[in-house]
Amino acid sequence: MIAQEPLRIGQKISLTRTDIEDNVHKKVKVTYRVKEVYPHHVVIENENGIRRSITNAELMTLGYVTQRQ
Fold first, then answer.
1. Lowest mean pLDDT: which of 1-5, 9-13, 44-48?
2. Taking a C-beta distance cutoff of 8 angstroms, is the pair 56, 4 a contact?
3. Which pTM does this prediction carry?
């Protein structure tokens, strides 16, 4: 999937992750910065410098991008 308006390098996005402590699930909001943009995915980095890749399809379900017609 190619995004209609892709994210820009340096843009910040917030994603949620689930932490488990003592059998208690907590949702934690994490802020990421866009490091690299590719046609079908982007590379994001958190405040600790850990990078991960997220596809445009995942970003579309989260409401960050729309699909090109």
1. 1-5
2. no
3. 0.80
